[in-house]
Amino acid sequence: MSDQERVRVLSVLVEDGANTLSKVSGLIRRRGFHVRSISVGPSRVVGRSRMTLTVDSGHAEVDQVRKQLERLVEVVEVEDVTGQYVHSRELVVAKVAASEVPGLVERGAKVLETGPDGTTVEFAGEGKDVGDFINELFQHGVLDVARSGPVVMRRTA
Amino acid sequence: MILEALEREGVEYIFGYPGGANLPIYQHLPEHPELKHILVRHEQGAAHMADGYARACGKPGVVFATSGPGALNLVTGLATAYMDSVPMIAITGQVASTQVGRDAFQETDVIGATSSVTKHSYLVTSIEQLPRVIHEAFHIATTGRPGPVLIDICKDVQQANAEPVNLERLDIPGYQLNGHVDLDRAGEAARAVANAERPVILAGHGVILSHAEAELREFAEKAGAPVGTTLLGVGAFPVNHPLSLHMTGFMGTGWNLKAVQNADVLMMVGMRVDDRVTARLADFAPKVKTFIHIDIDGSEMGKNVRPHIELVADAKNALEAMTPQIGELHEGRGRWFSQIDAWREEHPLKYTHSNGHLQPQDVLIDMYKRCRNEAIVVADVGQNQIWAALWWNYDRPGLFLNSGGSGTMGFALPAAIGAKFGRPDAAVWCVAGEGGFVMTAQELSVAVEHQLDIKIVLLNNFSLGMVRQFQDDFYGGVRSQSDLSHMPDFVKLADAYGLPAVRVDRFEEIGPAMDAAERTKGPFLIDFRIDPEANVYPIVPLGKGLNDFWEAPDK
C-alpha cells in the first residue's frame, strides 16, 4: 500500500473532557497509527469539540482508524472524509525580514504587523497552496513559521 | 454516597484493599452489611477475583484499591478482563483534587496508566459527577461487548456529602449500544453455510457472553456444519456432539485444524480471529471462498481477516436471524463429514504414558470422571491451561474459565476464589502450574479465611513448562531460565496457610488424593509432581501455518 493510501482524514466529534485528547491520541499510538496532523476546536454544540485528524494507519487496515475511534465513549461521531468533496483549510502565520511583501500580498496573504524589524503575515488555504506559500516565504528571508493542520468540512454541492 | 450507589446497582461482593486514598470509603463500609467485602492480600488478586466472579455468575465484579501502587497493582487484572471482555468495575482512590498534579504521596496518573486496558474510565473530581458516573460505569461495563470500567475518585470527593440524586435517563452519546447492528446479510450468510460443500463454524467467547449456545447448536444442526471453538469459546458447543471439532488454534486438535484448512466457507462467530487462532495469517484457511464474521464489535471486522459477509450484532441475535433462512443443504455434506471422521481417526489426541512419570492428562482424565460437567474448572496459563482445555469434554458454557487473551500467569487461584463467591453452589477446581501458582499464592489466605470449597490441582513439572517446550522446539533447545526446581514444598506451604494438602508422584495415587480432596470441606491442594518433559500437543511451530501442526510422538 502506498504511503498516501494509508492516510485517512477524519472529522471527529468528541465530548469535551480532561481526558478526551489523551484518550484519542493514546488510542492512535497503541494501535500503531501515526498522527500527521490534528486540529481541535469547539463545535456548534456546547460541550463538544470537533477534531480534524490526519492519520497514517500504519500496518493496520485503513478502516481500523475510524472503527477504533468509534469505540471510545468520548467519541460521538467519526466521519471519514478522505478523498471526499470537502473544503479543507490550513493556516500559516509567518514572520519575514522584509518590511514590504507585495509578492505575498498578491498571493492572498494578509499583513498582520509591519515595521523596521520585519513583517508578519497570515495565509489560509488548502494544504498544497499553504505549502507553496511557505516555499515562497523562503525567498523573503523567513524568520519564523507557525502552521496549523487542516480543518475540513464536507461541501454542500 | 459511593456505597449507596453500589447497593443500587445490586452489588453483592467487593474485592478490595484499603489505603490512604480510599479510607473515607472504608470508614462507611460497616454501615452497609449487604456489601460483602473480601479483603485480598494483593490488589492483583482482587482484580482476578472480580474477574472470576464475573465469568462464573455473569454479574460485574467490583474492585476497590487505593491510589498509586494500589491502583497500579490492578493493571494486570484489568488487562486480563479487558482482553477477554469481562465486566468489571474498579473503584480507585485518588489524592485530593487540589493535590492532583503535584506528585502528592501515592499519586499516580491512574487514568493514563489504565486507558489502554479499560473499556472506559473516569476521573471524578467533584461530588456532583459521582452518581451519574457510577450508574454509567455499570451500564458501559455490562452492555454491548463487556469490559472493565475504572472510576478514579479523588479523596475529597469521597468525603463530600451530596443528596442522593434520582438517576436521570442515561445519556451517553458516544456509546450507542445498538448503533451499528447490521443483520442485512443474515440470510446470505445462512445460505452460504448451508450451500457450502465443506463448511466450518468457529465459535468464540462472544457466543458464551451472549448466551447463544442453544442458537449456535440449532443453527449448526440445521445447516449441517461442524463447530470448533476458540480457547475462550470452550463450552460454547458440546465437545461430545457429533458436529464438534473441539478446540481450534495453534494448539487445537488435528481434526479441527484439518477442517479449517480445507473449509470452503468459514463462519467465525463472537471471536477476534487473533494470531493464536490463525497461526501464520497468510496460510490461514486457504481454501475458503467465503469468510463470514459475526461480532458485536464492528472494529473486529477485517481487523485480522477480511470477511466477505459481515454481521455486526450480538451472536444470539445474528444466529436467530440466520437459522430460519438456511434453505437447502449442499449434497456433498456426507462426504465432508466422512472426511472429518477420517481426520479424527488419523489425528487423535494422545500422550505419552510409558516413561514411568505421572502424566498431567491422567490427572485431568480422573478429574473429569469425577466432575463430569458439573464443576467449574479455572485454569492458569501455560501447558496446564491447554491440557485442561483439551482433556475435558465441556458440554456447556461457564465450566472452563481461563485468561485466554492476555495469558496472565497467576490468574487461576484468585479467579477460582472469585468464581466460588459467584457460584457457591458449584464445585470449583483450580488447575495451575507451579510457576503461575506462586505468582498469586498469597490469596490462599482468602480461601482459608472464608473456608472456600476450592480444590487446587497443581501440575508441578519443576519448570516453566510452556517456555521450556518452546525453548526445546523453537529456540535451539537452549533451556534458559525456565528451570523452577527451587520452589517451596507445596504441602508445607499449604500447611503454613492453614489448608490440607497431599503430594502425588505416581499414577496409583491420583484416585486416593482426589478422594481426599472431594471428602474435604474447604480448600484442598494436591501437588501433582508430573513428568517434567510432558509437552502440549498438537502444536503449530511458531511462524508456521495451521497445516504444519506437530502431534505427540508415538511412545
Q: What is the H level of CATH, i.e. the homologous superfamily of the largest domain in chain B?
A: Thiamin diphosphate (ThDP)-binding fold, Pyr/PP domains
Number of distinct helices of chain A: 4
Overall helicity of chain B: 25-40%
CATH class of the largest domain in chain A: Alpha Beta
Query: Please, how many domains of chain B?
Result: 3
Give the end-to-end Cα distance of chain A, rounded to a whole number of Å.
31 Å
Strand content of chain B: 15-25%
Give the structural class of chain A. Answer: alpha+beta
CATH homologous superfamily descriptor of the largest domain in chain A:
ACT domain
**Structural class assignment of chain B:** alpha/beta
The CATH architecture assignment of the largest domain in chain A turns out to be 2-Layer Sandwich
- Mean pLDDT across all residues of chain B, rounded? 95
Structural overview:
The complex is a heterodimer of chains A (157) and B (555). Chain A is an alpha+beta fold and 157 residues long. In chain A, the strands form 2 sheets. In chain A, strands 5, 6, 7, 8 and 9 form a 5-stranded antiparallel β-sheet that branches. A 4-stranded antiparallel β-sheet of chain A has the order 2-3-1-4, with helices on one face. The longest helix of chain A is centred in the first third of the chain and has 11 residues, at 20-30. Chain A is elongated, with a radius of gyration of 18 Å. Chain A has helices spanning 20-30, 63-71, 102-106, 127-137; strands spanning 7-15, 34-42, 48-56, 75-80, 86-96, 110-115, 118-125, 142-147, 151-154. In chain B, the strands form 3 sheets. Chain B has a 6-stranded parallel β-sheet, sandwiched between helices. Chain B folds into 3 domains: 2-159, Rossmann fold, CATH 3.40.50; 186-346, 3-Layer(aba) Sandwich (Rossmann fold); 360-536, Rossmann fold. The interface between A and B is medium-sized, with 21 and 21 residues.
